[in-house]
Amino acid sequence: MDFGAIALACRRADAAYQTTFDTSKSAFTALGDSWVSLYTTDSMQAALSVDPVGATWLSISGTRASDGYLADVFRDVSLEPKAVNGGTVTAGVWANLETVWDWARDTAPAGTVFNVTGHSLGAARCQASVAIVDPKRLGALYAFASPKFIGADLFKSHAAVFQRLIPVVNGNDGWASWPWLDLRWRSRAPVQTVWLKDDRGTFTVLPDGNQWKGGWAFEDHDIGSYQKRLDVIAAASDIKPAA
Question: Is residue 240 part of a domain?
Fold first, then answer.
């Protein structure tokens, strides 16, 4: 795995939280991207940028509760199943996702291939995007701290596309373990998943995301913790996965 690319995708997911056009542009420009535009409503936010080699990125924000966007929180607890192309997702994840993809396709040049990244709710929306977008127009997918908002049926029916996904979980992330008790939502992407274990760069690559058992450490959900640990791994090429 290219941990430099994973760490940069995490930084884009973090930049997606910027809520104004000016701060969004500054955040992506600082990463070396050419900022294109920001889509923001009371319950959905995403930014388009183009990296230095010309690849297009759709970076989807997670829950913006600290900025007063309470509709985002409502999406996190909207757990009724929603039937989509190839399976089911939670109603909260699906809300406005088709609209943001309409915006992305209208804003980017025709035929653009989109790389997608997101943290938390944004990570789940990254994964749900496979039900909306032609597989030929999806590139790399990065999901940091995704809750269990995607049905096993969607993972199965879009298995080929999910091979492009790199999910990352951190420690015993309590919010990535949500929903905790609802048996309708038990699945994680059945692909190689990076499990970050500490600030020293210890990590494991799980063969299947369902092997991660989660936990109750809610501080492990912070995107800053994900970023710090990924940066250590990316900077130390001699660090190997833990057993």
Answer: no
Exposed/middle/buried for 192, CB within 10 Å: 0-12, 13-18, 19+? Answer: middle
Identify the CA nearest to 18 among candidates 106, 103, 119: 119
Tell me the whole-structure pTM to 2 decimals.
0.94
Per-residue pLDDT of 68-102, as tens digits, reads 444 444 455 679 999 999 999 999 999 899 999 99
Strand partners, 57: 49, 115
118-167 per-position pLDDT tens digit = 999 999 999 999 999 999 999 999 999 999 999 999 999 999 999 999 99
Helices (H), ranges, the chain: 3-15, 21-30, 70-77, 91-94, 97-107, 121-128, 152-157, 159-162, 223-235
Q: Residue 123 falls within a domain, yes or no?
A: yes
- Evaluate whether residue 241 is within a structural domain: no
Query: Structure tokens of 208?
Result: 């299947």
Asked if 232 contacts 201 with a C-beta cutoff of 8 angstroms, the reply is: yes
* For residue 179, cis peptide bond before it (omega within 30 degrees of 0): yes
Query: What is the spatial distance between Cα 184 and Cα 58, in angstroms, rounded to a whole number?
Result: 29
**Per-residue H/E/C for 4-59:** HHHHHHHHHHHHCCCCCHHHHHHHHHHCCCEEEEEEECCCCEEEEEECCCCCEEEE
**DSSP structural state of residue 95:** T
Query: Total structural domains in the chain?
Result: 1
